[in-house]
Amino acid sequence: MSETHPLVLFMPSGRRGRFARGTPLIEAARSLGVHVESVCGGRGICGRCQVEVAEGVFAKHGITSAADHLSAWSAKEERYAEKRGLKPGRRLSCSASVEGDLVVDLPSDMAINGAVVRKAVDTREIPRDPAIRLLYVEVSQPDMHAPLGDLDRVFEALQRDWRLPRPTIEPSLLPKVQGILRAGNWGVTAVVAHDREADRPHLVALYPGLKNEAYGIAVDIGSTTIALHLSSLLSGATIASAGTPNPQIRFGEDLMSRVSYVMMNPEGRPQMTAAVRGAIRELTTRVCTEANVSPDDVFDAVFVGNPVMHHLFLGIDPTELGQAPFALAASGAIEMPAAALDLGLHPHARAYVLPCIAGHVGADAAAATLSEGPHRQDETMLLVDVGTNAEIVLGSSRRLVAASSPTGPAFEGAEISSGQRAAPGAIERVRIDPETLEPRFKVIGVEPWSNEPGFVEGAARFGVTGICGSGIIEVVAEMFLAGIISEDGVIDGRLAARSPRIVEEGRTFAYVLHETPDRSIRILQTDVRAIQLAKAALYAGIKLLVDRLSAEEGRPVAIDRIALAGAFGSFIEPRYAMVLGLVPDCALERCGSVGNAAGAGARMALLNREFRREIEDVVTRIEKVETALEPAFQGHFVAAMAFPNKRDSYPELVKVQPLPNRDAAGNPTLSGGEAGSGGSDEGGSARRRGGRAGRR
Asked: Quick one: which of 166, 465, 645, 693 could link to 656 by a disulfide (CB 3.0–4.6 Å)?
């Protein structure tokens, strides 16, 4: 506990500050711009201001948090708990006050400006051949002259009508078979699990009469968000989807913070396992309710996630992933009874977890590879899942290489002074006029831009609360194009004489993006540096893969297509990704988002068992490059700190977007060039249309 004012960290926003002991927790939150709803004005009646305290040692933040670092249980809380109930561990922030260092979690069900989970379902049609099948048979009735048992006659009918080898059976079904047969007048539907042809099928359930409902869930467990899709195993259609912030965020924003929490807190692993399983259970209930489906009709479940999420979900200690040689406890595909995961599905449902590629390239990267299929094509594809730990796959049908880069949480708004998760009120799009340096922006939940009629009224509901990952990318890129920051990422303080948007911030300068009497959203020099570090780590990892592939093929490898995957990748405009140097040069029309490719791959594995065999084979042929061990990494990293890159050219990009300090071929120049920017997302002003490409 701090001897000075205690330090309070609010999750999932990551905002923190020091407060005097006795400060009401709701006041601490609001002073940091963390919105905590309170309908009753702090009387302890509405219960909308509930919070949870995360307990343990949070080494990354230098915080030891405990429940007793809040004031004692109050009479208001006692009264509310008696009348309306409080979940275990919950407190009312209007009543509880700060008494020591704290990590405070704002539960997703209490957040009025809840994080927007932007992992939409992929709508492609998937050939259907699921591992779970519903097989209707009419069974011959007992005959004294053919004394075959009732269960054996079910097996006989399955072989006769469906050519199904004799299955094994759930033991709990044995005493129910005769009753089911007679209830169905000898017509029954068998629910059979048969993932691999070489294995014996397994009788999961038996229903009287014809049953024509069977469902499965495909789940992408991201370090920031969890997305779940409910699909019919009979039609292949996805009938409901839902997402939620990963509740593990309160234990650490990035993967290594969570590994560290496990190492320093004996109860850390079971706490995080329970948290993620509980979130998946709640999502399953939500989608089943929305689709009017019984969870008892969910017979199959497929899961993907990065290695740390993979291990924590399965209840495996991830400590070994936090240190070389980054050993996985299990890398191959895992099949198991879903009941072992306590997800509230049919008691005998099955679960399948896709294989991991390597220590920090997980089942989510394998699923994205399955979805986008670089191994099925001749052209060289770069597949990048941009997140707190970027996973990269490069190659074609000839060869595949993969790596991970520890980009950290900056791309998702963490470690940015005004950063936040994608939620209503967050700035997500930015344009800066190159002449006046005046910005305009879009806010999540509000349709008009900030300079358009209706914006003020629209923004009044949520406010302008911060800037999320896509907004960070765009504002830094716009600042570079407008000449506000140099190629090396330094904010030019000389522009303060030209625009009041450039202000002193300690020994450096900042750009004022939005300011009201209550709140100032500024891009600080430290924010620019955080983006530089994150994008340099990503680019250096990509360059190592290009180098490896070029060496193995004996020729320089050109990237034909770039696929940006994941929730964050879905909202990056490719032009800005190249302006910043997140990715190498490529024709813009061949660089774009592929959405939640990991979730799409999970659905493919859910609906067609042959896709499971395909990815199990492919991962054995992917060569892993460990970036930390490559001598060339540091050189690539240093060059990639510049915007877009100190050494590499961008000839395709400059065809549509002139860059400062680049010639017409996209090569770095010493003299510098015209710093262009986009005052218009519709295509640029008439002044720019003449000899320059318009900007959207």
From this structure: 693
Q: Give the pair of three-digit tokens for residue 255.
A: 């993967």
Greater confidence (159 vs 58) lies with: 159
What six digits make up the tokens of 77? 């809380």
| 544 Rama sector, left if φ>0, alpha if ψ -120 to 50, beta otherwise | alpha
| Ramachandran assignment for 681, one of left (phi > 0), alpha (psi -120 to 50 degrees), beta (any other) | alpha
Give the integer Cα–Cα distance in Å for 355 and 378.
24
Residue 251: which residues within 8 A CB-CB, separation 6 or more? 54, 56, 58, 257, 258, 261, 268, 271, 272, 275
**Who wins on pLDDT, 358 or 689?**
358
Q: How far apart are the C-alpha atoms of 682 and 440, rounded to whole Å?
A: 13
User: What's the topology of domain 7-110?
Assistant: Ubiquitin-like (UB roll) (3.10.20)
Predicted confidence at residue 546, as pLDDT, reads: 96
Residue 677 pLDDT = 40
At 417-446, the pLDDT tens digits run 888 877 889 999 999 999 999 999 999 999
Are 627 and 544 in contact by the 8 Å Cβ rule? The answer is: yes
Query: Which residue do the tokens 């019984």 mark?
Result: 294
Phi first, then psi, for residue 218 (nearest 5°) are: -115, 125
Per residue in 274-298, pLDDT tens? 999 999 999 999 999 999 999 999 9
| Amino acid at position 326, single letter | F
Q: Against a cut of 0.90, is the pTM above it?
A: no
- Using the Cα atoms of residue 276, residue 355, residue 264 and residue 115 in order, give the sign of their dihedral: negative
Instruction: Look at residue 211 and tell me whether its pLDDT is greater than 70.
Output: yes
Which structure tokens are listed for 639?
A: 């060059």
CA-to-CA distance for 394 and 377, rounded, in angstroms? 12
| Of 390, 454, 462, 405, the residue nearest 428 (C-alpha) | 462
Alpha carbon distances (Å) from 102 to 16, 32, 270, 398, 500: 10, 14, 21, 52, 37
In DSSP notation, 349-406 reads -EEEEPPP-BTTB-HHHHHHHHHH-GGG-SS-EEEEE-SSSEEEEEE-SS-EEEEEE-
Q: How far apart are CA 310 and CA 85, in angstroms?
A: 34
- The answer to whether residue 119 scores a pLDDT higher than 80 is no
3-state secondary structure of 603: helix
Highest mean pLDDT: which range of 152-166, 415-429, 656-670: 152-166
Beta-bridge partners for 562: 382, 591
Nearest to 101 by CA among 74, 66, 73, 71: 66
β-pairing verdict for 102-105 and 561-565: unpaired
DSSP H helix total and E strand total for the chain: 18, 29
Least confident of 134-148, 294-308, 310-324, 347-361: 134-148
Segments making up each domain of the chain, as ranges: 7-110, 373-407+530-598+619-689, 418-523
